[in-house]
Predict the 3D structure of the following.
Amino acid sequence: MNDKSSDARSPSGRTIDEFGTTRRAVLAASGTVALTGLAGCAALDGLLDRAGEQLIGTTVSAPAAFYAGRSTSGASASVAGATRNNDGTTFLSTAGTALSHGDGDEPHLFRTGPGEIRTVPATASAEGREIELEGWSISAPTRAQDYNSSRSNKPSTEWWAGPDDDIDDADSDADGILDVELELLGHVMTAQDAVERRATADAKRALEGFINATTKALRPALDKCGTGVCETVRANSEIREQGVRRANDAVDDGNWTIAVKELAGVEEIVLGDIERLDDVLVERQPGRPRFIDIIRYMRDEPTIGERFTVCLPDAKLPGDRGSLAEEITLDRVLAYFAPSREPEGIRAPFHDRYGTGGIEYDDEGCVRLDGPISLHEDIACQTILSARLDTYRTGNRAIVGYGTEGGAVLSSAPASADTIGKRVFAATDDVTGEIILGEDRDMVMPGNPNDDGSAGQTLVCPVAVTPEDCPCPLPGLFYVRRCIHDEQVIFAGGWILDEGALYEDSVTLLFDEGPTEVASVTPEDVRSGDFDDRVVEQFSRSRSQHGAAVGSAQVRRTDMNKAELIESMASQAFQTDQGRKGLNAVNVKVVGERANGGDGDGDSTHMSVTALDAPLVHLADASGTGNDVKFKAGAELSKSVN
């Protein structure tokens, strides 16, 4: 995605200045902005001066990026602040460090990659003229190398809210059979992992689960289905069961090589059956995801998230219309990045239920605003992120959250009477107690949020996300918060793969402790050899040094449902080195340590975590730095944080 020039036209497509003054210099002195006059055009001089007098504040900004954390070395048990105890358990730091069962099962830490910097100016209307406001964006993906090495859960079909509700009996049968096939795949992958670890009890438990699912769930469902695909799956089920029994015997004999070979053959047959069922279901229900594509994508090097920042001047708007920050609410940012792509057209998220009014989309899906602010086409056309986000197919998902002493923990959950909220605002100040369900079923953390639903808060909602290298949509969580720094408005957000929705026995947690910490740096700081030190010394929370990484790990599975699991994790915060409880140490102790030989007492729950309040690094002194310097320094900044 290349930088797009707005020399000739505003983001809305209107000519900015037929007299060639679009890029005229803007003077900022004592906080008051005035446009330079045009020699020989006294009338136009006066018009521009009056327009400038109405725009109070600054028109300049500088790029910011998420700080991805200090570089780490050594064993992953000590990755980015994780602490190994004498009993072999590991604690989790919520900024993206991970926890594990012990030496045999290490955590994974995924960092944001190099970012892409672009200029994204906004335009403020005044007295029939348009005044350009400088803007910058940096976006960067998070890719997961070796992601599948820790994944053996069953992929879940429950998150998908299909394009229609008219599913006949045949479709229902095929859906049920596919669901069992995905369960069988989970058992195979769990067994393969256990065999690799030489964990006899874990392997036999998974193999027994495979046989039980085949005999008690799959074959009864196949008996009700008379299609050719079902007949093929039935025949293959016999072959697969024989392979699993041979693998079980090999595990008993300690013949791990034979067990590996047999399980590889079983896995290949299961994947073939999943693909056959996908073909049938997609033909009957066009638009639904092919789960074989999801499986293959997640086994490669998937994009599991993206972070973005958009920096704009904190300018007052003409005509007593407030400020740019008040005009661009978090709900409107949601509409820019994740519209509702419905069959009859593109609409504001959730049928514009949340008052994002004034937003319409053109035939190309770009935002059209009727107001004092026009945005750059990279924002208006949703091209800041490489992935496409959509709020339409989220009918089966809602948001749940819990307040802790000093912060909040959020996650998605199946939609129900108790979790019908499609978005949540987590306040960053004075957050204690439980989340309150408002009359419109939106969950709001206690505190005093502004009426515009943005200042001092983070917006979180479920989305369907299609990464540019993925053939089908995946469940994700979108989040964005707004902060004011150095007379600039910074929108900082992104999306993360909702592993808790995509896999059974998984949970995705988003932690929020408080206001975003922002480190101011100069171009010289960015190029220096001690960049990390110059950044980290500005943070007051020790957790901020871990940055914006995503952690993936395992905890021992309990009998709790996902909501209870989140609450339990949140309640296990303990005393920090600052002498109080809080989310710099919602550090979750891993229970159920594997016994000698790697065997354990039960299956485990996969957990992915990320920090909503991950710190930012912002170039300082926007008014005194030229655009060329900002661009080069911002590009280096985006590289420095990977």
